[in-house]
Amino acid sequence: MGNAILAGVGDSRISEARRKLKAWAYWLSQGGRHGSRGYPKASAFVHANEGDRTNSHIESGNEDAEQVERAMCALKRFNFNVFKSLRYEYELEIPDREAAERLCVSIKTFRVWREKGEYFIAGKIIT
Known about the structure:
With 127 residues, this protein is mostly helical. The chain has one domain. It has six helices and no strands. The chain has helices at 3-6, 11-29, 63-78, 80-91, 96-103, 107-125. Helix 2 crosses helix 6, helix 3 packs across helix 6 (107-125) and helix 4 (80-91) crosses helix 6 (107-125). The longest helix has 19 residues, at 11-29.
């Protein structure tokens, strides 16, 4: 991901994206309109190995969660490692060291990927 994604995204937008990512992770943990695995039917994580899910519909009544879910689906297609870094941080709450080990990268690289993911999400959902 280059500077084009990072351009024009300020600290307040990143803070808002982080807040929405946390709310989205909570929504996932509560089942949202969940399928058989406890995740929303259109969850990017349930369908991580499937094709394009951009036309999926989430009937949750939670617009923030729906926005984040759509952005996460787009991120999954754009950069799977950055997508996984956000999943480890927000949904699974895995400590940085363990997440970096799972991704086979340094902690510094994991943190850079996570930050790029937060910028990506901010660019997609914060207007």
